[in-house]
Amino acid sequence: MGKLTVLALRAVLVVLLAGSVFVQAVMVPLLAVDLNGLDPDFAYLRTPLLVIIVLGIVTVQVVLVCVWRLVTMVRRGTVFSPAAFRYVHVVIGAMVAAALVVFALAVILAPGEAVAPGIVLLICGVVVAILGVALIVLVLRMLLAQAVARDVEAAQMQAELDEVI
Hints:
The protein is mainly alpha-helical. Helices cover about 85% and strands about 0% of the residues. It contains 4 helices and no strands. It has helices spanning about 5-35, 45-75, 85-110, 115-165. Helix 1 runs antiparallel to helix 2 (about 45-75), helix 2 (about 45-75) runs antiparallel to helix 3 and helix 3 (about 85-110) packs antiparallel against helix 4. The two termini are about 35 Å apart. The model has no long low-confidence stretch (mean pLDDT about 90).
């Protein structure tokens, strides 16, 4: 991976992480204040909504940090090692957690008249999309496992060849 590509990706990751911290530190408290004026019939939604939003932001931050670590490993040439699997597993887990958090949002919004049923259906569609991305990352993890196995095999063959020569 070229230096410019790594630099561009890291810049995007920094902007996304800074944005998520801003939303977590500034926008969520402002939303909490706005939700204080919520119709009393829907006041029960205030706390679950805030918790779901914060948990969703945390899952995004976890993925961003893991991608940063993986990019660092790529730059150093150590991505084809067992250490990379730890970060890939955390990314998959964070995506599944994000899907569960979004599904929880659908569950708390479904009963009553808080939102239209079509909105709840759209939120469930987002859950399926997030799980689809998690499955894509799982497939990429399998490709990484194959690459690591090939790398180990190539190192063993090189060692055998060095002994013969």
